[in-house]
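Student: I would love a firmer grasp of how sequence relates to backbone shape in proteins. Thank you; the sequence and its tokens follow:
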Amino acid sequence: MLQRLSVVDSVIVKSVLFSSTIQIGDSSRIHGFSRAIALQREAEIFFDEEGDFNQFKVFSEPIFIPPITENITIAPFQLNPVIKVGTLEVTGLSAASIVQVGSTPKIAMESRIMHIRQLQPR
């Protein structure tokens, strides 16, 4: 893995939520995972068994990751092995997202969200 010095003058972050990462510098592996059920109702009715991820297929289906079929050749040359950033300003990160200044050979991110709206009959 390439190792470089990461230099950031300033970082301004407003919010980081739900398995998100801010990484300054190199890392060997990052795995972010988040799942959520967002239920919106007009009437304030609550049931005991709500929030079971097993009842929704979206949380158990395998995610298709297409294979990389191209030949990739990398010949790195670092005259100055420093990553220099002035100001990094982030409004918000949520649901398994990442902001990184540095290098990581293995990153896997997954976010699964089920949005449900239950409206009153008209």
Q: What stands out?
A: The CA atoms of residues 36 and 113 lie 5 Å apart. Strands lie at 5-13, 21-24, 29-41, 82-90, 98-101, 106-118. The chain has a mean pLDDT of 84.
